[in-house]
Amino acid sequence: MNINSKLPDVGVTIFSQMTKLSNEHGAINLSQGFPDFDVDTELIELVSKHMISGNNQYAPTQGVWPLLEEIAEKSRQIYNADYNPESEITVTSGATEALFAAITAVVEKDDEVILFEPAYDSYAPAIRLSGGIPVYLKLIFPDYHMDWDEVANAISEKTKLIILNSPHNPTGTLLAAEDISALKEIVSHTNLFIISDEVYEHIIFDDLIHESMLKYPELAERSFVISSFGKTYHCTGWKIGYCLAPEPLSREFQKIHQFLTFSSNTPIQYAFAQFLRYKEVYLNLATFYQKKRDKFLSLINNSRFKALPCKGTYFQMLDYSLISKESDMDFAKRLTVDSKVASIPTSSFYHDGDDHKVLRFCFAKKDETLEKAAKILCEI
């Protein structure tokens, strides 16, 4: 029997494709966004401790209380944002689940949702599954800035939601203070909701500031702010994220969440609750990854790739137009198969396959991994 597909044009994600190709050809995998170094041993020991002590059954749907309290405290200290852990914070099975739950909670049939390309590939399918209509706006190449006049002109009576991502995957750009001012003006006389994907909130470089929606009450009141422990603590496979939103928004979010995963891994939640108390870990993350970025850029300085500015995340965009006129998909595949370095073609972040001859490389890797990959890239 056949199924009448709800997503007939959607296949396996580019991240899975390129990792599979990398594995098949023994390539250095700088494609999918995960570290190749170990999780902090103390965090692993905390998970083990809570497993051994018996914290192995269902957690409360919203999350375990110690973790909710620690998230609330962290938000107060960093963003001066006051969220009630009893009703305004939800722990999820990864940030992608949180994104799906937030979109599903808000979007109804024929609602329009503004998103900015290049865009993380889960946004549009989730919108479509709720009957919504993605409205694609493009960040302006090559510095990937927003055209706020275009945003204002794109808003219609059907617009329900704007999805933002900063620090931005794949481009490494950030929302700046002037972006926040423009956003405030645009939404001030509307009933628009905001989903703010802030999973790389602690990975920001060159003394720049993360402009979280949490910092601005007039934006926070209409926002679902989503983050990820996997990105912060180098444990993407544990799939634990969270969402902060005002009580009326969180109530609807939790209705969806309870029927997606019901709850998230119990011993890991308790471990994060304790580990969050070590503030220096997440406060020093930017310095850690800036060294990685700078090392990678230094290593490829003599290559024919052109590095685009990276202000945050652990991704570096490289322009290969001086090397080849191939499509980014073809060049990325050839680079993986022939040269043994895997990357992500950035056309996959556009609904229409927009191709600027740019690849995304993940530098969340051991120094020796970056050195091996860079040596190859410099020979191309």
Mean pLDDT: 97
Which strands sit side by side, in order, in the main sheet? 2-8-7-6-5-3-4
What would you give as the CATH superfamily of the largest domain? Answer: Type I PLP-dependent aspartate aminotransferase-like (Major domain)
Order of helices and strands: HEHHEHEHEHEHEHEHEHHHHEEHEEEH
Tell me about this structure:
The structure is a single chain. The chain has a seven-stranded mixed beta sheet, sandwiched between helices. It has helices spanning 14-24, 41-52, 65-79, 95-106, 123-129, 148-154, 177-187, 217-220, 229-232, 247-260, 266-275, 279-283, 285-299, 328-338, 367-378; strands at 28-29, 89-92, 112-117, 133-138, 159-165, 193-197, 223-228, 241-244, 306-307, 315-319, 341-342, 344-345, 358-362. It folds into two domains: 14-36 and 284-378, Aspartate Aminotransferase, domain 1 (Alpha-Beta Complex); 55-281, Type I PLP-dependent aspartate aminotransferase-like (Major domain) (Aspartate Aminotransferase, domain 2). The longest helix has 15 residues, at 65-79. Helices cover 39% and strands 15% of the residues. The protein is an alpha/beta fold and 380 residues long. The chain has 15 helices and 13 strands. Helix 3 (65-79) packs parallel to helix 11 (266-275) and helix 4 packs parallel to helix 5. A hairpin with a 7-residue loop joins strand 9 and strand 10 (315-319).
Please give the structural blueprint.
Layout: H1 14-24, E1 28-29, H2 41-52, H3 65-79, E2 89-92, H4 95-106, E3 112-117, H5 123-129, E4 133-138, H6 148-154, E5 159-165, H7 177-187, E6 193-197, H8 217-220, E7 223-228, H9 229-232, E8 241-244, H10 247-260, H11 266-275, H12 279-283, H13 285-299, E9 306-307, E10 315-319, H14 328-338, E11 341-342, E12 344-345, E13 358-362, H15 367-378
Parallel strand pairs: 1-11, 3-4, 3-5, 5-6, 6-7
Antiparallel strand pairs: 2-8, 7-8, 9-10, 10-13, 12-13
